[in-house]
């Protein structure tokens, strides 16, 4: 298989920020439990520097990854981002030995600090895409969406998005600002956000599925994923990514890894073509 992510095609985030559809998620480049530095820092830097070489130009991260470690590593490896768009998120906080849940902080003053700190860590004057990591139920949605509008108006961010939201929340947010992306959990085994994906497809909103590879959930050796993977000489994960890419033109999968070999394996999924029968079988069930 060809290790070239550009085979996945392109999508224009917000109508004017064109990226290769198969991107990279930078949560796994930090330490265990998404806390602290990575075990092999040099390998992580190699992973990040390999991205533009294989056509991946969308890197998704968050200030909570590490926390802060992921953004710092991305800046060290890739700034000034000649061929890469970095999307980041804010609104969650982290403590050691507390992997889940991640506390939500939607106070507008805190969100503003998140944006300014991400600007500093990523070494940019404007964030191409900033996403609210979670809508905080303790803070009125209006206050959270209104401050995001101000980030756009002030030129701190170019585009804004949301993460793990409902259709109703997207519609409410769109009364305050153009929602460029939505980042919900979605994969071939977990389609609980099907209605959100359909809404994004209908309105041209980029859909960034987190946990796109559904580790451990891709079925038995006799399942559709495994059978089609064997027939194509591919891995189950590559078939899962190929299915996502075909599922919707607004789909922007971001598989993550801290290994160059795994990165190249994921990128090769962009060259896999599923015919109608294969796509239908996979869609019907794993």
List keywords for this structure.
single chain, 286 residues, alpha/beta, TIM Barrel, seven-stranded parallel beta sheet, 10 helices
- Full CATH superfamily name: NADP-dependent oxidoreductase domain
Please state the CA-atom Rg, rounded to the nearest Å: 18 Å
What's the level 1 CATH class?
A: Alpha Beta
CATH topology: TIM Barrel
What sequence of helices (H) and strands (E) makes up the elements? EEEHEHEHEHEHEHEHHHH
Helical amount: 25-40%
Helices and strands: which structural class?
A: alpha/beta
Helix and strand topology:
Blueprint: E1 10-13, E2 17-20, E3 24-25, H1 41-50, E4 58-60, H2 69-78, E5 85-90, H3 108-122, E6 127-132, H4 141-153, E7 157-163, H5 167-173, E8 179-183, H6 194-203, E9 206-207, H7 224-232, H8 236-247, H9 260-268, H10 276-284
Parallel strand pairs: 3-4, 4-5, 5-6, 6-7, 7-8, 8-9
Antiparallel strand pairs: 1-2
Helix pairs in contact: 1-2, 3-4, 7-8
Q: Can you describe this structure?
A:
With 286 residues, this protein is α/β, with parallel strands linked by helices. It has one domain: NADP-dependent oxidoreductase domain (TIM Barrel). Helix content is 36%, strand content 14%. The protein has 10 helices and 9 strands. The strands form 2 sheets. The chain has a 7-stranded parallel beta sheet with strand order 3-4-5-6-7-8-9, with helices on one face. Strands 1-2 form a two-stranded antiparallel ribbon. A hairpin with a 3-residue loop joins β1 and β2. α1 packs across α2, α3 runs parallel beside α4 and α7 crosses α8. The mean pLDDT is 95.
